[in-house]
Structure formats: C-alpha cells, structure tokens
Design goal:
alpha/beta; TIM Barrel; nine-stranded mixed beta sheet; 11 helices; 20 strands; about 30% helix; binds pyridoxal-5'-phosphate
C-alpha cells in the first residue's frame, strides 16, 4: 500500500465516521502486470482471463483490451463479459451447464464451449440442432496423471467432478463422429491450480501435447487448439518469490517451437496470476485481547469479506499500517514483538485470516492491509453472513491521481 491509498482510506474514514474496511485495487498495477504477461507470450500462445477469480466490472474493463478473451463458467459470467465488450471472444466451461446456459451461450456467440461429459455433448448436439447452429468445442479431459507439479489444488489426476475421464475418450470419439452440429477444435486440460514451478509447468504442458497428438493420430482429428488451463500460482508465503513468468515464457517459446504441431494454438486461461497482485483488503483493528495464551487482533470485517485464508487454511500475508489518530480520552492498547492471530467480527472460531504471526508492534486503531487479495477473495466470500456491512471497493489509478468508490464504508446492511 502506498501513501495515496492511505490518504484515500483516511478520507473515507472521516466522511463515514466508521472504521476502515475496504478492498483497494491498483488498476495501474493491474494493467502493467497483465500487459507484461501477455506481451511476453511466444507466437501461437493466447491469454484468456478466467473471470471467476474476480469479475468486478472495473477489472473486466481494464482487462478486456489486454487479453485475447474471457473464460466464463456460467450464463451470468457470459452476461458480464458481454456488458463490458460486445465482441470479445468468450470461452465457456464448467461441470454443470444447464440447457438454458448452453442456449444462451450459443446465442451470445461464444467462441468455444468446453464439453465436460458425454451427456453434455449429447445435449449440446441436440440444442445446437434445434437452433440450427454449428458449435465449436474443446473436450475437457480429466487425465489420470500423475503430474510433475507442486501445486496446492488439483482438478485432475485424482477423482474430481471435472472433465471426461481419459478412459472414455474412445467412446466419446464414436459419439462425436455422429454429431452434425458440434465441431471438435481440440482438447482442454485444467488439472492444477496455484502452481509455482516454472519448468514443471512446461512438463505438464508436454503431457497435454503428447496426449492430444496421440488422440489426433489415433482418431484422425484435425485439431487447431489446446486449452492448457490456468493454474499459474501466487506465492502467498514468500511474496518476494513469485512465479517467474519471464523464465517460464522463455522455456515455453522453445517448447512451442519444438514440440507443438505448427497449426496448433495454445490457449491459457489464467485467473489468480493475473489479478491477485493488484488487490488489498484493508481493515481496522477494533480490539486486542489475550485468551488462554493466544493474542488476538479483532478487525472490522473478516472472512465473510475475505474467505481465501480460511478456505485454504493459510496465513494470509499482511502489513500493519500505523495510524496515529486516537479518538478516546483513555490510553491506547498496544503490543510489541508478539505473535498475533488476526480474526474478524464473525461469531465463529473459523473467522481467522492469519494465525500466530510475529509483528513488531500493533495497536488498536492501526490498519491491517492484506496483500494479494485481487483474486478469489471478495468473489468467493459469503458476504451476508451475520449481516455486517460490506466493505467499500476502491479503484485507484496512482499515475493520474484518480480514484473512485463502489459500495460505502459502514453502510448498514440492507436486503
Ligand atoms: C478456475 C479455472 C481457471 C483459472 O484458474 P487459476 O488457477 O485462477 O489460474 C482456468 N480454467 C478453469 C476451467 C477453471 O475452472
């Protein structure tokens, strides 16, 4: 967090008369980061944004001109994409698409549908037939693995609800051969998430390419593209050591040149890696207390705004922003050189965002700024549990000294 962001939050606090509680997004950082990522991609590689990571409108507006398109997983996300850009390519995946969603996707002109089961393929052929449409698809395959990874979430290589069991490929090829309204463009693999190892990620792509080549040969397929998923990670434990994108793309360039058939494109659909770093969740320390040997900082808000740390059972990284103002006529409580557990306002012992983290000083009234909260943070949280107010969402452009707010600090909860 920089001085400008602090000044904005101070102003919000003064106008609302409420403790600070806000998501802050640095749109300049987002633009610089994502343009850097996209511009380094080698030929025949494309970047889509997996919008479930953060589908707030200003984020989508910032990203639309930078990425090749949006990856969506519901009709609601198709609508969000179309509201931001009537033309942007949309690719549509997800394990439980309804008939209505498939029809809406066809009508919205999505570029590719990622088919995740045999039944879904039959339904899509049926629905596309009724609309007299031709639909381009990728088959999402759940490979048996094992994978050369060091990731924290697995969508394949073990039992999960995603994609088509690799053992069913022969059967699905027979079905495809009879389809008249569905055209197979290639395969989709999104097997892991939060992967932090550059060369292992290339090894993973190698497995995908080899599998696809094998099926293309075996079934005489004319494939044009492989979706190699997202899953590039963020190192929440050591912020200074992030996935080295420059190293990765240099390995990728060599890999594409040597191992990917000339007329194939590789599509990436990243979420976390694109938006995590632009966001902060900043909240004010309401109380400090010690219970049975553990020290707690109780902050405004909590995991109903920011579920990521409790979902992943990790200590989310934060910095303490010292605030000098003190409104009361009595002494301010403070601790020095202690291990502190940061909790929110919810009445559940699971409302923990970081546990026993050493801090040099913390006072009631200081702010805690959680970092890397631009992805899977607000978007995955259960906002109305306990009916506390929502945080403000502050969109900052430091370079031109501009900012705007959506949502209000301290606004009472309304249905
Ligand atoms: C969530 C998801 C992504 C994005 O994953 P990240 O780990 O955020 O990059 C990509 N593809 C599919 C199919 C997904 O479900």
């Amino acid at each position: 967090m920089n001085n400008q962001m602090e000044a904005i939050l101070t102003q919000l606090k003064e106008t609302s008369g409420q403790p600070v509680c806000a998501y802050l997004y640095d749109l300049d950082h987002l633009r610089a980061h994502v343009s850097g990522v996209v511009s380094q991609l080698p030929e025949r590689c494309e970047m889509y944004y997996a919008m479930k990571a953060n589908s707030e409108r200003p984020i989508l507006e910032e990203l639309a001109p930078l990425v090749r398109g949006f990856e969506v997983a519901s009709a609601g996300e198709v609508k969000k994409a179309r509201q931001v850009d009537g033309q942007i390519p949309i690719i549509f995946g997800g394990p439980g698409k309804t008939d209505t969603e498939l029809v809406e996707a066809i009508r919205a002109g999505v570029k590719l549908i990622h088919v995740e089961s045999m039944h879904e393929l039959m339904r899509l052929e049926h629905l596309a037939g009724q609309l007299n449409a031709m639909v381009s698809i990728l088959l999402r395959i759940n490979l048996a693995g094992p994978f050369p990874d060091a990731a924290t979430l697995h969508m394949a290589g073990r039992p999960t609800q995603f994609g088509i069991n690799e053992r069913e490929v022969p059967e699905i090829m027979k079905l495809l051969a009879r389809c008249k309204h569905v055209r197979l463009e290639g395969f989709h693999f999104h097997s892991i998430s939060n992967h932090l190892h550059e060369s292992n990620h290339i090894s993973l792509l190698r497995i995908y390419v080899q599998k696809a080549k094998q099926w293309a040969d075996e079934y005489g397929l004319e494939i044009t593209r492989l979706n190699v998923g997202g899953g590039i990670g963020v190192n929440y434990q050591t912020l200074e050591e992030q996935f080295d994108w420059s190293l990765f793309v240099s390995l990728l360039a060599e890999f594409v040149e040597r191992e990917v058939p000339e007329n194939w494109k590789l599509m990436f659909e990243c979420g976390r890696f694109l938006t995590a770093s632009c966001g902060y969740y900043v909240t004010e320390v309401l109380d400090l207390k010690e219970n049975h040997g553990e020290r707690y900082a109780v902050v405004r808000g909590g995991t109903h705004h920011f579920r990521l740390p409790s979902s992943w059972q990790h200590n989310h990284p934060f910095e303490i922003v010292p605030v000098e103002q003190w409104a009361y006529p009595f002494a301010r409580k403070e601790w020095e050189a202690v291990d502190v557990t940061v909790v929110g306002q919810l009445c559940t012992p699971k409302d923990v965002m970081a546990r026993k983290v050493p801090v040099s000083r913390i006072r009631i009234g200081d702010w805690i700024a959680f970092q890397y909260t631009g992805a899977y943070s607000w978007s995955i949280s259960h906002h109305d549990f306990l009916s506390h107010p929502h945080p403000a969402h502050v969109w900052v452009r430091p370079s031109v000294n501009e900012w705007s707010v959506t949502g209000k600090v301290g606004e009472a909860w309304t249905s």
